[in-house]
Amino acid sequence: MQKKRLLFLIISSFFLSGCMARVLTADNLPWVNEDPVLFHDDYSKETGVWTLRDDTHSYAGYHQGGFRLWSNVPDYQFWSVPGLNFENTMVYVRAQKIDGTDNNVFGVMCRYQNEDNFYALLIGSDGYYGIIKRIEGQQSLIDQEHADFSELINRGEGVNEIVAVCQDEHLALFVNENRLLQVQDDALTYGDVGLIVGNFDEPGVDILFDDFIVLSP
Fold first, then answer.
1. Neighbouring C-beta atoms of residue 174, cutoff 10 Å
2. Residue 47 belongs to some domain of the structure
3. Which domain holds residue 199?
4. What is the DSSP string of 60-79?
5. DSSP character for 35?
6. By C-alpha distance, which of 138, 151, 80 is closest to 109?
7. In whole angstroms, what is the distance from residue 38 CA to residue 84 CA?
8. d(C-alpha 36, C-alpha 58), whole Å
9. What angle do CA 120, 125, 195 make, to 5 degrees?
């Protein structure tokens, strides 16, 4: 675990009253066991809480000190969750494409209740991003006609630091210390957190995640 670099993620709680902000630094990340950490996994050892998968078409499991989600199926999404239950969360994870097409999506889930009901805050290796909801199996972007593009997302095999805030009816996506999107939706109020990947017509998504951290916003 690299602890030398301070992770200054200044996340303005613009949807709260006043000018509140939370600053994450190496001093309050979970490896020093300080509140308000709700859950963390640096994937240095198998904890037995994540859903695992290993077949000819997809893989979800521990890999090279991280957690890998891989699939070679086109037009496919899949995920892994640790089996927790929260209302309001701020989730941090570091993610990198290790193979496959740039035309992919990957990111963080919150309020996951089952495979038909969840939120996902996503970016792609091509620089696009969006926030989706799946309700009773029907999936759609929230307050976006289509995914938007940002130069702030590191494309290709660049490492991206993702923060997903799910607080009350507010959902916000931050990437590399920058807020990309804030939306409102009140369809789901509680559920699990998790990791998700997907692709489109071109098969081959392969993402390595590390330092999964859930905080109380």
1. 23
2. yes
3. 37-215
4. EEEETTEEEEEE--SS-EEE
5. T
6. 80
7. 10
8. 34
9. 30
Q: Could you give the number of structural domains in the chain?
A: 1
Establish if 46 belongs to a structural domain.
yes
For 24, other C-beta atoms within 10 Å of its C-beta total 20
- Give the integer Cα–Cα distance in Å for 106 and 31: 25
- DSSP secondary structure string, 106-121? EEEEEEEEETTEEEEE
- Give the count of alpha carbons within 13 A of 182, CB side only: 13
Q: Which amino acid is at 112?
A: Y
pLDDT in tens, the chain (217 residues): 332 233 334 344 434 333 333 444 434 444 434 557 889 999 999 988 999 999 989 999 999 999 999 999 999 999 999 999 999 999 999 999 999 999 999 999 999 999 999 999 999 999 999 999 999 999 999 999 999 999 999 999 999 999 999 999 999 999 998 999 999 999 999 999 999 999 999 999 999 999 999 998 7
**Any idea which residue has 């020093």 for tokens?**
32
- What is the CATH number for 56? 2.60.120.560
* Rounded distance between C-alpha atoms, residue 82 and residue 88, angstroms: 16
3-state SS class at 94: strand
Write the burial class of residue 124 (CB in 10 Å: 0-12 exposed, 13-18 middle, 19+ buried): buried
Find, among 60, 93, 69, 76, the residue nearest to 159 by Cα: 93
pTM to 2 decimal places:
0.86
Asked whether 67 and 209 are in contact (CB, 8 A), the reply is yes
Match 């006043």 to its residue by tokens. Answer: 18
